[in-house]
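User: I've been trying to design a sequence by hand for this structure and keep getting stuck. Would you show me what you'd pick, starting by listing the structure so we're on the same page?

Assistant: Good idea, let's start from the same input. This is the structure you sent:
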């Protein structure tokens, strides 16, 4: 998924086709019920209803079935075809392997330099020395940072629960490698998410981990002057990125107030935003999302849609939270990693909307599917 959206789409299609073929050949309907089926169905229906009020219904419908269809197919494909702990381990190892390739390409970009002068990722006036922000295969530094944050969280959980020193060392080295690449994204939202992940690990695993709340920022400050400037800019009210976000949130709240039930339409934010452009007042500038996951979802599919989405997310986190007590240390580590990754995504959602990206949304639904598989097959009790 993180390497190529096109390749991920092809393999998802092949997987669904094989699943359908298996049912045809066996003359049997393979579909496992989950505790969240009714919530998923409700989310699908509310999202579909929002299409009816979109300014461009056909475009909204195209985005809806192409994206929501992809996420739901992936979710149930994994749930219905992952039947053993060995399969789950192979899936997670493949995920970690793909993250390693993404990270190595990120280092390649940093070493050879990436021209970001034509992008809007950095305010040249405020950060004149910042000339490189890596994005690897994910097209945007914030998206890469969000992806790395999720994988680092999972790898950390596996490292903490692995009893072999060699394996634990490899996992920790892997996390450090991804962490260095994450620093090179200069994504402030992801840095805050990492701090949230550290806090989650501190409360769920060991309070000793909370020392990293001091060590990590100190290491960033000592590493590079531009990092120090970037960190301090988080609290700077005149920062252009922060100012734009506040303006977008104001516009998005207005959208929600005017369309509280069905929203403005799935994927229609960029079409509707010009009507609520209180800040830029430039019809030529396209704003594709609100840089806030909660406001964006509420704006596009309504407040009920947001509540259902949160119920789906919280429900899966709850099951993973319980399953982290599994006597199987690998399962316990994986579930703890996924819980902290979801915490990171939840915190990141206040300042960005990385699930706007198709690959990261697919990863979100894949992790939820893994939780269901662990829960339904009772791996957490073994």
């Amino acid at each position: 998924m993180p390497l190529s959206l096109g390749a991920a789409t092809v393999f998802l299609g092949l997987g669904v086709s094989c699943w359908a073929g298996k049912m045809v050949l066996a003359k049997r309907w393979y579909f496992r019920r989950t505790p969240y089926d009714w919530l998923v169905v409700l989310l699908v229906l509310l999202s579909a209803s929002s299409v009816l009020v979109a300014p461009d219904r056909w475009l909204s419908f195209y985005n809806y079935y192409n994206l929501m269809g992809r996420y739901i197919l992936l979710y149930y494909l994994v749930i219905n075809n992952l039947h053993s702990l060995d399969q789950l381990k192979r899936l997670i190892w493949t995920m970690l392997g793909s993250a390693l390739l993404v990270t190595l390409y990120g280092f390649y970009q940093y070493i050879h330099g990436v021209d970001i002068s034509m992008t809007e990722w950095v305010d040249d006036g405020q950060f004149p020395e910042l000339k490189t922000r890596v994005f690897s295969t994910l097209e945007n530094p914030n998206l890469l940072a969000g992806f790395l944050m999720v994988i680092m969280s999972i790898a950390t959980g596996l490292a903490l629960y692995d009893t072999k020193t060699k394996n634990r060392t490899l996992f920790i080295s892997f996390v450090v490698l991804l962490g260095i690449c994450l620093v090179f994204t200069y994504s402030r939202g992801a840095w805050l998410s990492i701090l949230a992940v550290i806090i989650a690990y501190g409360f769920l695993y060991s309070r000793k981990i909370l020392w990293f709340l001091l060590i990590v920022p100190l290491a960033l400050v000592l590493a590079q002057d531009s990092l120090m400037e970037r960190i301090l800019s988080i609290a700077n009210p005149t920062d252009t990125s922060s100012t734009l976000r506040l303006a977008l949130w104001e516009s998005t709240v207005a959208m929600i107030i005017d369309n509280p039930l069905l929203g403005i339409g799935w994927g229609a934010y960029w079409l509707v935003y010009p009507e609520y452009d209180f800040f830029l007042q430039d019809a030529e500038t396209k704003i594709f999302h609100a840089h806030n996951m909660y406001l964006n979802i509420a704006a596009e599919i309504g407040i009920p849609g947001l509540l259902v989405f949160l119920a789906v997310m919280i429900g899966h986190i709850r099951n993973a939270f319980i399953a982290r007590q599994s006597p199987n240390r690998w399962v316990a580590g994986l579930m703890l990693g996924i819980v902290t990754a979801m915490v990171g995504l939840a915190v990141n959602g206040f300042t960005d909307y990385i699930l706007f990206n198709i690959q990261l949304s697919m990863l979100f639904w894949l992790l939820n599917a893994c939780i269901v598989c662990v829960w339904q097959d009772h791996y957490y009790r073994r």
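That's my pick for every position. To get oriented when you compare it with your attempt: Confidence is low (pLDDT under 50) at residues 123-128. Residues 293-323 form the longest helix (31 residues).
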